[in-house]
Amino acid sequence: MSFLPNLLHLFYLISLFSLSSAYTTTLSLSPTAASPSLANPCQRLAHLATASSTRAHHLKRPKSNISATKLPLFPRGYGGYSISLSFGTPPQTSSFVMDTGSSLVWFPCTSRYACNSCNFADVNSSSISTFIPKSSSSSKIVGCRNPKCKWMFPNVQCRDCERNSNSSSCNQSCPPYIIQYGSGSTTGLLLSESLVFPTKSVDNFVVGCSLFSSRQPSGIAGFGRGPESLPVQMGLKMFSYCLVSHRFDGSPVSSDLVLDSGGAAKTNGAKIMYTPFRKNPASSILAFQDYYYVTLRKITVGGVNVKAPYRFLVADSDGNGGTIVDSGTTFTYMEGQVFELVAAEFEKQIGKSYSRAGAVERESGLRPCYNISGEKLIDLPQLTFHFKGGAKMALPLADYFSFLEELVICMTLVTSKSMEGGVGPGPAIILGNYQQQNFYMEYDLEKERLGFRSQLCK
């Protein structure tokens, strides 16, 4: 598919084209649908493992150039969680993947939207729902002189405006964005729109109008720390979610994503444990400013500390090492030296209790895997993450081992052979959504901390 018609359409569009009180909004958060072509459980795990490693590669090594945004994205498929948001006057509703690892909110846009290699995840590229700017009276292209343009392009130069002696009449738009990621890209223009909820609306919300994408059948709702993210633009003091368990079968299950401008913690039920967000590194890689860094003190397997080197657990001033929390990654990623310590400790403690499933390890890309056929009771060491401030995330078995039709179990942590050597670049550990299942997760933006507690999500 040629980019040319879509770029011509992009430049054609260029030529055409508050919240005052505290509130709480609750949205439905659903797992993205499974691909019908990957019905085999082992193939599904292999796809998720590959997608998680690819996502990690681009969170750690985000590409940048003069026209690229600072936002690392991930290959679409299943393994994420989606929400519905409404934009425009009158409102148009679209589906978005909820992503705490990036900041821009964007949707497929205009009747000419094209998506290459998007016939997957039970979606046909010809049936993708798109936002139609000309049907909304509140749609405006963000101008080059608009301060919000610098959210995406800090060094933007409005040359046409500078040559125009009457700056008030300058109608040059903010440059088109091109977001590149593991297996594709998306490109479009920034719009100023109204984000509409049942009882509230946010005017002049900056959203991406994407005209061409690769492997992106739905938009992305960025919940990162950048100024263009949904939480920052809405002035939220807190947002929280509780992820229902992955089924990867398209079942219509969901849980709540709560957007809170009042900052009142939900203290019902078990006590919430907190760990502070780390100050984002002053790195030359701007994408690192989007991430939610936390300090992981240690990792234990069955109560035994795996003794991961300090340089992997704590990020340096350039953003190398440390841990981030990312709803867009499925399986938790660990640098090779940390992963090998964790895997070796599981192998040591499990010993000969269960036999290794070597064939499944080779097919799925996950390890260790064990045969459990005929076993009535499974007894495995507990995996626990210990964070700064005393917060401990003791994972239930289903969050770090996946069952394949009650015959085999595989550890759902991943690494990448291409990144085994050192600590950088970027975060050494990426806490994915599979390990966040059935935890209440609270992003306290006012007090700069992450809260969590074990809870059945439904």
From TrEMBL:
GO terms for biological process: proteolysis. CDD domains: pepsin_A_like_plant (cd05476). The active site is at 99, 326. GO terms for cellular component: extracellular region. GO terms for molecular function: aspartic-type endopeptidase activity. Keywords: Aspartyl protease, Glycoprotein, Hydrolase, Protease, Signal. Coiled coil: none annotated. Residues 1-22 form the signal peptide. Residues 81-453 form the Peptidase A1 domain. The keyword Hydrolase applies. This is Eukaryotic aspartyl protease family protein.
